[in-house]
Every structure is written in structure tokens, then in C-alpha cells.
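**Protein record**
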Amino acid sequence: MSDTSLPPSLPPQRADVIVGNDLLPDSVSVVAKPLSLFERVYNLGWIRRLAILVALAAIWEIYGRTLNNPLLFPTFTDTVTTFAGAFVQGELPRRAWASLQVLLIGYGLGVVLAALLTALAISSRIGTDFLETMTSMLNPLPAIALLPLALIWFGLGNGSLVFVLIHSVTWAVALNTHSGFRSVSNTLRMVGRNYGLRGPAYVMRILIPAAFANILTGLKVGWAFAWRTLIAAELVFGVSSGSGGLGWFIYQAKNALDIPSVFAGLFCVILIGLVIENLVFGTLEKYTIRRWGMQS
């Protein structure tokens, strides 16, 4: 019989193996290298973008001073001074607001039309064929090419501007949205079906969140197309009707050979583009696809 009073034998410890409490917490340390001030600043995205803008402004200023011909290329300082003067006088804010009002109408109608076409496309095969055919036909067609027809059909004024804006927005938004819906995995589709989702609920809870990265890209591309189309169209319609927004402001400054004012108008167009891109779409992207882990 074995003697149960004896303690159980322990396996022999090897010299190259540390077991039990031999590994003390204070014997292990994590080396954390502190970031330098430059690295901390460089990790801020807005600082990097600001540095790029400052570098471009410096190049602009140096080239303008080297050329020394304000009639051809004013310096950055002259442009900012002219911009500030027109802004304080109220000319630029009034022109910019006139352009943005028309833009919002055309952009909104274009997005609604794109949503209807995409809904038709995902509901039937004939709808898909119709959207793909119309997109392949009309998406490569420049909106500026429709200006003569817009003048004939809608006359002078905002109606013609809205028409070309709808054309600029619709196909870019519809194409990206439809591509996003088609890229949704079958697993997510089956999950939605298993939960009994049908119709609008299925689209809102499954398709749109899964395809929102493509949808947001389409909205951004449509905005860019609409903004540059509007400025170009205002140059033509402003000449015809004697009114308009930033495009008409630029055209008037060009006729008066006030080149700093031309650059100030272009500078205002760029600033509005930066604000919309970073403030509106950047915020929307931050609280949707980045928050959902769909984009780093």
C-alpha cells in the first residue's frame, strides 16, 4: 500500500524554464518611446493639410513676385487683399449665396432622381438595364454641352442652371449607389431576409449601411461636378441675363481687366469647395463609415 501521508512529488524544474512566481512583475518592463513634438504634430491630419496649403500659397506668392505682372498673375497677397475688400463690401457673400441657392436646388433634385433610378434598378432587371444604359449614354456627356438646349427649353434664368446641375449630379450619384448595392455580400443579404426584412426596411437597414461608402463617394463626386458646372454655366448665363453668382462676378472682373478680382472670385470658389469637402462630407464620413470601421 502506498503511503498517502507523503506529499505528492513535484516534477523537477529545468534551469531554462521559469515557472510559478519566479517571473516577478517588476522583472518585465514595457519600453514606451515618447513621441517627439514633430511626430505629435505630424500625426494631426489638419496640420498636414494646412502645411500643404501654406506651401502652395508661398509658391504662388514667389511666382507672382518673380513674374511681376499683375495683369497676368497677381500675387497671393494682392489676391487675398482684393478678396477681403470684396468680402467686407458684401459683393462676394452676395454672389456666393446666389450660387449656393441654385446649387442646393439642383443638387437636391439630382440626388432625389438618382435615388429613384437606383430604387428602380434594384427592384427589377429592366430597371437595372435602364439605369446602366442611361448612365453609359449620359454620364460621359458634359453638362456644358447641354447649355444651348437649356436656353431653348427653359430660357434665361435659374431654370436652365438647375437643369444642367441635375444632369451633372444624377448619373454620378446613381452609378456609385448602384455599384455599392451590387457589392453588398450575400451573407448580409441573407441575414436581412432571415430577419424578415422586405422592401424599404430591407434597403434602409441592410443595403444603405453596407453600401454607404460608395454612396458617400457618389455624393462627393456629384457635388464636385455640380459646383464646377454651376460656375461655368453662370459665365454663360450671366452674359445672357446680366445676373448671376460667382461665375458672373468673375466674368465682370475679366471684362474690366481686374485680374486680382478674377483670382479673388476663383479663390472664393476654392474656399467654398474646401469647406464643403472637409466640414460637411468630412463630418459625415467621420460619424458613419469611419465610426462603423468601414474605412481607416
In short: The radius of gyration is 30 Å. The mean pLDDT is 83. The longest helix spans residues 91-123.
